[in-house]
């Protein structure tokens, strides 16, 4: 991006009919104490670099959001390596070099702020959320004691109370985690200590075998967590799902009974609101009935789907969540907080501390001059913990509760539009008859395969289509949409369009289908 | 901070003798596509908010770094709650409200960029590192596939190779983690799978008891990790240390032998470079001798001390690290990267994938159009992973290898100066005769307690001094320094000054001691 002078900027402003008198001008700050240092903020060169970077970042965001930039500028790994010049020298690099490098990083990175980035469960950036995350970096601290993070401790307490109430936990508590997988693991950890508090001290070797349950569509973190926490992956029981991917509660009941009959302990049931691929939402009341019957900890993985609870229209998808023991909810997904904004909530206030308390004497001195119950580090197994709360608060504050609801509704409305269009168009076929969340899965069938016998060979051919289209759209940079097979249902490669970006419009939905048809029909 | 007009800014620039022609002016960008949206970057109000915030953030950093701002603006929790107004309404908040809130957050937060923040193992902010972290937020992605994070995948590969070589792993690999505790846990996880690959599947119940070893000065994450990973806290054996806190290798050897005699498996030895409180550095060669003798996985927790390896002068403190199996190293501590920048390294390339591979089919499709070995998500147990690599790269690039070394040397030099001054001053007493790292521990003895019999009552009185001084310095906002007792050594409350901030000077060291004396002598 080339810099432009004052007169050009003023002309642009006039065009926009913005009152110049109302716009504050940039400043360079002065300080004599350390400005001769290369790496001091008081050094004007540093200030200029940061100001230029600011403009470059904002420009990138505008051009991403308005689709003036391609979603990606794809290079194969070895090509990219040549383009980037990652080499670090013995001597320092100048501020200009850092600025150029940052611009180059932006050029070659994916523009996840683009409404045409529908590849992952996150897309789109809210400016207030970004403001919060930038300030977080400036304040560079850890969320373990009130002493070093007073504002963030109070903010996290406030938000965790608010979110706990939203899921119907009267006396709940929570903590922000490094990712939804980690939040699911915290649930497993609490469940196990509730069964036997001695596990914290004695480990997993002294008990009957503990078994974890989740649907066959549930996220793979149940398996990784089982391995990491010492349960073992083979002690995860996958429960069959129905046609649209919802866990069958009667099968869950039966599997739990088998577990008990085999002398093992059913330790943890993970229900899902918004499965990663199909967006399926388990019937939480039905799962809760089974869990209550057997006295098993019920955790809800709402990493993707949690946003439904914000909307009057879609909160029914989480009916029964108040009966669960814990919830994982990634605000950076359906509600477009910035990565990572992963919430763990539990009904049992105090349980996190009971599980994780260690009272490290160098952090949690009892004779501090404030109420040390505000030192919240022992809620989790991390020591230092990245501050993710400010960006969550600024996001929510800027939208208000109503705006948070609207964000969810908007995603669902675009998804509904997409489904309607897919149903109308030749060559597109939905994977499910209906979708519960705004991830929409479909196959594209090129002309030559239409109206043919749909045998194994035919499906094999269909499976090759998505990777080819994906390659082309990434090379074009026009959009990013993921594809995958789904072995649990026996489905070959299909596209999964994920709609969360608040800038997405029905026109973007049309664009997707037009592009796929254009690229794919002759494949 | 009030905004100032163009003429004032120009006057300030003239004063600084900066050539205006060389300074690019700010711009407001225009776009018609979405600028009518409240939350669009193309909305000029949003741009103005972000620009004002930029100035406010840079001003805060300058004033923190140059000590024009107090380190803290302490309020008791309930007072702070009133000052903050955290309430979120149903309706959206304006951009002005978000800006004001961000400023208020900065006002009441700790200025960890200040050279007088010596309370934690991090202090000081490097502008290039900050630039990298801001850009990371703008690009908002996850570090699991090349597809969504091409630049960051290449950057992480480059840096992990560079860091592996630094610790002497010829064919090593690594991954960035959410904190040093997590990095230590990854080490435990790998160690256990190396002993029995079936553990991943079968869990911890099927084996002989596995025991973990660390010195009595080692970080408490060994206990939290043992609990979380299913080993159990009681299966952590703490090994006695010598006078300056170094693990006694002969005691380690003996404890491992006892473990074997009891029919248990010695699974993991965690040596420490830079213990959290005393800064002790274990003799890694001596520990390696014991580990090799018994075939035990050796992990080095260099979360705090890892920066020594960058300096020709202090790298000897990690002699023998190449013989270890894994290392945890927080660049955000001694090397002042931004929180979090926690590296896990292992000698056994491929071992991380072996432990954590799950091949989730919705992320790691084998038929992608690039070399899928660049999809690195299965290196760890997280799924989505925050990008921490760009800020690490920009930090290192801006300093060069020599600048990284200088940062370490500077911290040690200031620490040495502080020790020398403490030795000279009445009323100050060092906790150890010598310190291996730049965390310096000492008691302050007020006038009334000097030259008295040092019995239990005397020490009880001394223990009350640090909390009182701490209270006063926080209320004054003049500096932040932690205190704690050290039960393992029988020490009552003492101060721990941690020196990492590159802006710290010997004058700051004098200031600390002057202030303590001023506040404390009559206590």
TrEMBL record, chains A, B:
Query: Where is the PTM N6-(pyridoxal phosphate)lysine found along the chain?
Result: 333
Q: Does the keyword Lyase apply?
A: yes
Its BP terms in the Gene Ontology are:
carboxylic acid metabolic process
One GO cellular component this record assigns the protein to is:
cytoplasm
| Family to which this protein belongs | Belongs to the group II decarboxylase family.
Entry's PANTHER family? Answer: CYSTEINE SULFINIC ACID DECARBOXYLASE (PTHR45677:SF8), GLUTAMATE DECARBOXYLASE-RELATED (PTHR45677)
Q: Which UniProt keywords apply?
A: Decarboxylase, Lyase, Pyridoxal phosphate
Q: What is this protein called?
A: Cysteine sulfinic acid decarboxylase
> What are the GO MF terms of this UniProt record?
carboxy-lyase activity; pyridoxal phosphate binding
- Pfam families, per database record: Pyridoxal_deC (PF00282)
Give the InterPro entries listed for this entry: PyrdxlP-dep_de-COase, PyrdxlP-dep_Trfase, PyrdxlP-dep_Trfase_major
Is the Lyase keyword given for this protein?
yes
């Amino acid at each position: 991006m080339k810099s432009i002078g004052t007169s050009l900027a003023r002309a642009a402003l006039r065009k926009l009919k913005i009152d110049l008198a109302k716009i504050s001008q940039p400043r360079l700050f002065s300080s004599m104490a350390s400005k001769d240092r290369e790496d001091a903020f008081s050094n004007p060169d540093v200030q200029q670099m940061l100001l230029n970077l600011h403009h470059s970042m904002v420009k990138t965001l505008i051009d991403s959001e308005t689709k003036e930039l391609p979603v990606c500028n794809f290079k194969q790994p070895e090509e990219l390596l040549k383009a980037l010049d990652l080499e670090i020298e013995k001597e320092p690099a100048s501020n200009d070099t850092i600025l150029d490098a940052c611009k180059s990083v932006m050029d070659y990175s994916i523009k996840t702020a683009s409404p045409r980035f529908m590849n992952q469960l996150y897309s789109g950036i809210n400016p207030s959320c970004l403001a919060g995350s930038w300030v977080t970096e400036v304040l560079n601290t850890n969320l373990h004691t009130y002493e070093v993070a007073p504002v963030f401790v109070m903010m996290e307490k406030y938000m965790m109370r608010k979110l706990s109430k939203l899921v119907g936990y009267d006396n709940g508590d929570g903590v922000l985690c490094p990712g939804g997988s980690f939040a699911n693991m915290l649930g497993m950890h609490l469940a196990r200590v509730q069964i036997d508090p001695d596990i914290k001290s004695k480990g997993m070797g002294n008990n009957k075998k503990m078994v974890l349950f989740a649907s066959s569509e549930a996220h793979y973190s149940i398996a990784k967590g089982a391995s990491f926490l010492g349960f073992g992956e083979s002690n995860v029981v996958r429960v069959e799902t129905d046609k649209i991917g919802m866990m069958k509660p009667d099968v869950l009941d039966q599997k739990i009974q088998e577990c008990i009959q085999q002398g093992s302990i059913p330790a943890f049931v993970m229900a899902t609101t918004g499965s990663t691929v199909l967006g399926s939402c388990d019937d939480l009341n039905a799962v809760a009935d089974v869990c209550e019957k057997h006295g098993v900890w019920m955790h809800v993985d709402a990493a993707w789907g949690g946003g439904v609870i914000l909307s009057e229209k879609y909160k029914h998808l989480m009916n029964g969540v108040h009966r669960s023991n814990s919830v994982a909810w990634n605000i950076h997904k359906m509600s477009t907080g910035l990565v990572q904004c992963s919430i763990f909530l539990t009904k049992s206030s105090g349980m996190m501390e009971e599980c994780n308390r260690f009272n490290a004497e160098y952090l949690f001195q009892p004779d501090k001059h404030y109420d040390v119950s505000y030192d919240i580090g022992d809620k989790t197994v991390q020591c230092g913990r990245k501050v993710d709360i400010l960006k969550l608060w600024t996001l929510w504050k800027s939208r208000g509760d109503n705006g948070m609801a609207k964000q969810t509704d908007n995603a669902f409305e675009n998804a509904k539009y997409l489904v309607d269009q897919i149903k109308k168009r030749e060559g597109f076929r939905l994977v499910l008859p209906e979708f519960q969340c705004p991830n929409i899965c479909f196959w594209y069938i090129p002309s030559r395969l239409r109206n043919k016998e749909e045998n194994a060979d035919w499906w094999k051919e269909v499976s090759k289509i998505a990777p080819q289209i994906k390659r082309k759209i990434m090379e074009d940079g026009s959009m990013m949409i993921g594809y995958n097979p789904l072995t649990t249902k026996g489905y070959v490669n299909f596209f999964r369009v994920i709609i969360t970006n608040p800038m997405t419009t029905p026109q973007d939905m049309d664009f997707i289908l037009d592009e796929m048809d254009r690229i794919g029909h002759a494949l």
